[in-house]
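Review this fold:
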Amino acid sequence: MIFKHPSISKNASISLLALVLALLIGAVYLNSINSPFHFDDNLVIKNNYRLSSISNLRYLFKNPEYFKVARELTFRPIITAQYFFFKLVFKNNPAPWRIFNLLVHFGVCLLLFELLRLFQVSNRIAFLSASLFAVHPVHTEIFNVVAFNEDLIGSFFCLLAFYGYLQKGRAWRLGSLAAYLICCFTKETFVLLPIIILIYEWWQRERPLSWGNFFFSQLGYLIIAVLFLYVNRMLMKNPGSLKAAYPGGTLLSALLTFSVVLKYYLKIFFIPTGLTPIYDFPVFKSILNRPVMASLAVLLLISTIIIYGFKNKKKYAFFLIWFFLFLLPTSNIIPFWMILAERYLYFPLLGLIPGVILLGKQILEKINVDWWKPTLILGIIFLSFFSIMTVKRNSVWQDPEKDRKSTRLNSSHILLSRMPSSA
């Protein structure tokens, strides 16, 4: 590994930054803690009487009983076990569920901060990245619909696995493998971690990559990935799930639609307005559609920037690749139930935010401009804007009828992302 953790003599300053992060998270999400359960919460948690009996834990690894108990589309035993525990201890009080999610979110932000320092990113950029991630309004869906916390928990363990991989020593490697196993069985998205490890090794290499050595060094991760895919797709495949179809009926229409979705994701990253639980997003079947052409032009520009940065070992390139890679599982390349959702951005934003900041720093340095002052000013503006939008969005979640786009839904509505096979 070419990156080593920078030594910092004043640990108190790091503790202070962690405290500020905690206060930021608490301030913007305080008004969400006592909100009622929403949407999937009612089916999966509140009205799921099977969670009230601890004896049903015996079905955690039995098919098809698991899917009747968990009311999940796919096999996610870590999350289901957490639901059992919280239901037993906290019953149908949503506040402890949300407090737990906020603590996990705080842990994710700390891991992002430490990971960036491991990449020898300055404390200022690392803290700004973690702060912007902490308060971004697209996360309000995950916090207000507590049944979506597989993204939170999976993100924590996936980051922990990658952080452990970058460290030296057998204990770190074993801990990394354990964290990877947990995140895989929390949500399927995180099985892609070995790919980001491969990209990292290829990007930071000082000499040609030895594929044989790489394969054996990653054998543990590959075994876990194969084990997970076998269990998820063979042993514990949901027998009652419906087969998803490509948006528009073809792979081409799925790819064209996803290109427009990517542009929309970038839009709500910078300007997070018009957020809603359900999107009525159009399907595109022709490359000649104006939104498709505009999206492809944007993606071509971004791809050029990434390729240049990757060849020149620029840190922003790695983090921008992170963003696009972890959106692939929801891209409908493999048919999926939803075209887009705000919660799908949670883990990808861990790459996009530092990637954009580092790219901006690179551009400013290229034109001989002091990068920190404009970065600080823009950071404060976006931090304030995101914080205000998050607080406002939480107030809407307290009463979804306030949201014009949510009036089509009611508290028993089941989001298409789950498509449970049993009531």
Observations:
- Residues 362 and 371 are 8 Å apart (CA to CA).
